[in-house]
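Protocol step 4 of 5: obtain the predicted structure for the target chain.
Materials: sequence only (see below). No template structures provided, no constraints applied. The aim of this step is simply to have a reference model before the mutagenesis design in step 5. Sequence pasted as it appears in the construct record:
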Amino acid sequence: MPRIELHNVSKKWGSFVAVNKLDMVIEDREFITLLGPSGCGKTTTLRMIAGLETPTEGKIVIGDTVVFDSERGINISPAKRDIGFLFQNYALWPHMTVYKNIAFGLENLKWSKDKIDERVTEVLKTLKIEEFSGRYPAELSGGQQQRVAIARTLAPKPQVLFMDEPLSNLDAKLRSEMRTELKRLHSDTNSTFVYVTHDQLEAMTLATRICLIEKGDLQQYDPPLTVYNNPANLFVADFIGNPTMNFIPATAKQTEKNKLCVDFFGINAEFTGEKELQLENESITLGIRPEFLPISDKGLIEGLAYSTLPSGMETIVKINLRGNILSSVVFGAIDYKVDQKIHFDIAGNNIIVFDNTSKKNIGLGSLKIT
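Step 4 output (structure tokens):
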């Protein structure tokens, strides 16, 4: 399987910039998710790699082959890029059986009947849909149709499998099941997967690396847990995580190379960074995930219960701290009366300091109430 390289790739329609000078490398056998809000440029990026959209400028390399180069006038057709594309709409032929839907593309590639039968049988078994080979699409559930669409895409043994929000038409339970199947399929096929989604849960659970895009600009390109625990900027921190990160306005003064004296909501604390800090100005934002606000009777900070949202396995507790609403996550079921006093702490080494001007992450560390 090849690696995919994008060098300074842009796509513009008039003055509108859909993708802006994107540089990224997708390594062999990775599962990459292109993530971001609607209209951010993720589908356009996928279509440019596949050859379905022509970049305005830049260079795209798949394996050892330059498939697009604006300066040299190279633009290899999608059919010759050896990729499979799975769309949001499965586009199965309604008048063909499952077997024929999968075999159709191989027939067009002039495969022999024996090889077609061998390959169709193989992908039917891989996707666990052998029993449906004689059925028509209308006789299948949404999840079964999706598996047929994947089987049809995998049948020609493409070097790379591209997927554009393939689970968006499924209900929540089936989406969860299909995420499990897709992750297993990626392991079983040793293929490179490139997957477009606006669902951060899909990106977190499926990807080996997340490419997070906003308004055509790459915001962060890292493994899911790195994006979650150490987001590059305020946009990434806000987009990833549910419940969302707590953003607390604060002022800070540097006391040592890796230490800040911090004031927020009238509370004094000391921030100790893992590395040396570059404090540009005193106005900062503290980023604290809900799981780092543990509630306990011995907690040093007192607030009021604003609302409690138990869901069985965990409970989201909204805390009113001097007129500011914070989110805490508690494992297990718990319930507080409205305006009941709550004590909590700030725990862990994953507290983030964001610069209010650049919006960038300038430090990761711990926060101690003084």
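Step 4 remarks: The longest strand covers residues 16-26. Residues 4-238 form a domain with the Rossmann fold fold (CATH 3.40.50.300).
Proceed to step 5.
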